[in-house]
Write a structure and sequence with these properties.
Structural class: alpha/beta
Helix content: 40-55%
Radius of gyration: 19 Å
Largest sheet: 6 strands, parallel
């Protein structure tokens, strides 16, 4: 029996976040250059987006390019930007009723990439199915710093009292304020760390790490991660007895 067949379709996580790791190592093991791995990884994005949409996931957030990734070799960064430009397939989103969003320090993106992404956001904005979110030029430290600046300005302008600052206000000023916190975070590629990704939002997120490189992460692998998630007890600081009640 497949993992998909064993899923409780009434308990599909509303929001899944993924750290798509292992493209370069996947390419290396087959004797290819790193950019080949990124191309294969882009194909997996479409596969997983379609599968997640069919399963009933409401939000799928993919860590596509971090603020630290700008420090990679210029040739690799340029290749990634070109791939990002070429791999946005609006037809896939429209066919699956998927809306598209981006979060991050997008002003650093090349103009042609930003314009292409923005057009896709606009053209899919009325779709009512799953929301696919790409975290681009993103890091939690950048995001929390930006939120802090916004809140500090409100206090300075006299429109916000210091005593009114709380977790909800901070969440409202993050770039993810349009969606719930992730229920499940998946990292492929064998590494066991969050890499500056959705740190505030993942306070009570279930974490799932697997050795599979991202280009090999297909629909059944996603279902396996959800299956594991469904067999965990989410307590949110409470005891097992309280949760069962």
């Amino acid at each position: 029996m497949t993992y998909r067949e064993q899923l409780d379709m009434n308990r599909i996580p509303a929001h899944i976040a993924i750290i798509m790791d292992g493209n370069g190592r996947w390419a290396k093991q087959y004797g290819h250059i790193r950019s080949y791995g990124h191309q294969a990884g882009a194909e997996t994005v479409h596969t997983i987006a379609e599968e997640a949409s069919k399963l009933g996931v409401r939000y799928l957030t993919l860590y596509t390019f971090s603020t630290e990734n700008w420090n990679r070799p210029e040739t690799e960064v340029n290749a990634l930007m070109d791939l990002l430009f070429d791999s946005i397939e609006e037809q896939t989103f429209m066919k699956n009723n998927i809306s598209f969003r981006i979060i991050g320090d997008t002003k650093k993106l090349p103009v042609k990439v930003y314009d292409r992404l923005s057009a896709c956001v606009e053209n899919t904005s009325k779709n009512t199915g799953m929301c696919l979110v790409l975290a681009l030029s993103y890091s939690s430290r950048w995001e929390i710093t930006e939120a802090t600046r916004k809140i500090a300005k409100l206090v300075k302008d006299g429109s916000l009292n210091l005593e009114d600052i709380g977790p909800e206000l901070i969440s409202e000023n993050l770039s993810t304020n349009f969606m719930p916190d992730p229920d499940l975070l998946i990292r492929t590629g064998g590494e066991v760390r969050l890499s500056n990704y959705l740190l505030w939002q993942c306070a009570y997120t279930e974490l799932y790490f697997c050795d599979t490189f991202w280009p090999d992460f297909k629909g059944e692998e996603l279902c396996k991660a959800i299956y594991v998630y469904q067999h965990r007890e989410r307590r949110f600081g409470k005891t097992s007895e309280q949760v069962k009640k």
